[in-house]
């Protein structure tokens, strides 16, 4: 099975439709599948549900799809870096399903593992639990959360082989591995693409069985979400 595609446009060709649910990996601007997100924007698909820890920032990541009004609903945890997100949500243009960050991660992991739902203490007695089933175990209340599965998962990996075995680097490992397992179709952009057998088997995080399409992005951009500096001390 040929998994490597020449570019993001060809990897997405014929796969994206209006109303789909799309997962996008990464944390802030670290480890986001930026090239695939730009190609997703170019498809013109509308009414998308995006599952992501955050909504990018103004002008970067999923923020690009907010600018074009392609996202109808966000299932996310942290959206504080995106003014456009706030504007669209407060005006009623954008639906939001807010999740505690750990709950979001576990919902995605559960979806990838074939677990339809689980119970957690997080959110019990708060707005998070409204409308959800609550059960008592050993004298403690737990709220039921549903696992998440996407039509397409867009993932960024530091290194991978042509069979789809993937390795992630540092903070970029957040959300990418579980999203790779929770997509009906998983498309990955890889910074360093090698041949099968060149990766240390013990270092592989995502086995290739979860990956259907791969593009090589050798010069991935490294954006800084919030740049902070301090004055240089005198010599």
Instruction: Supply the number of helical segments.
Output: 6
The CATH architecture of the domain at 4-22 and 29-98 and 151-171 and 184-216 comes to: 3-Layer(aba) Sandwich
Order of helices and strands: EHEHEHEHEHEEEEEHEE
Structural class: alpha/beta
Which fold does the CATH topology of the domain at 4-22 and 29-98 and 151-171 and 184-216 refer to? Glutaconate Coenzyme A-transferase
Total DSSP E strands: 12
Measure the end-to-end span: 60 Å
Uncertain segments: none
Characteristic key phrases:
235 residues; alpha/beta; Glutaconate Coenzyme A-transferase; nine-stranded mixed sheet; three-stranded antiparallel sheet; 20% helix; globular
Describe this structure as you would to a colleague.
There is one protein chain. The longest helix has 13 residues, at 101-113. 20% of the residues lie in helices and 28% in strands. The radius of gyration is 19 Å and the shape is globular. The protein has 235 residues and is α/β, with parallel strands linked by helices. The chain has helices at residues 8-12, 34-43, 63-67, 83-90, 101-113, 176-181; strands at 4-5, 21-24, 48-51, 71-76, 95-98, 117-120, 134-137, 140-146, 150-161, 166-167, 183-194, 213-216. It contains six helices and twelve strands. It starts with a strand and ends in a 19-residue tail after the last strand.
């Amino acid at each position: 099975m040929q998994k490597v595609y020449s570019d993001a446009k060809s990897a997405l060709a014929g796969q994206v439709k209006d109303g789909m649910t799309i997962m996008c990996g990464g944390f802030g601007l670290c480890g986001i599948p930026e090239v695939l997100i730009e190609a997703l924007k170019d498809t013109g698909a509308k009414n998308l549900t995006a599952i992501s820890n955050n909504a990018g920032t103004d002008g970067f990541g999923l923020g690009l799809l907010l600018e074009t009004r392609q996202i109808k609903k966000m299932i996310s945890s942290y959206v504080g870096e995106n003014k456009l997100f706030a504007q669209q949500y407060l005006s009623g243009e954008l639906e939001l399903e807010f999740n505690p960050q750990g709950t979001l991660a576990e919902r995605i992991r559960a979806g990838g593992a074939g677990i339809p739902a689980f119970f957690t203490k997080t959110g019990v007695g708060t707005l998070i639990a409204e409308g959800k089933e609550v059960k008592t175990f050993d004298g403690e209340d737990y709220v039921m959360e549903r696992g998440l599965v996407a039509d397409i998962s867009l993932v960024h990996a530091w290194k991978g082989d042509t069979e789809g075995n993937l390795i992630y680097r540092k903070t970029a490992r957040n959300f990418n591995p579980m999203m790779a397992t929770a997509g009906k179709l998983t498309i990955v952009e890889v910074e360093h693409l090698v041949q099968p057998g060149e990766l240390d088997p013990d270092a592989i995080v995502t086995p290739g069985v979860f990956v259907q399409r791969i593009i090589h992005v050798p010069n991935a951009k490294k954006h800084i979400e919030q740049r902070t500096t301090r004055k240089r001390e005198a010599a």
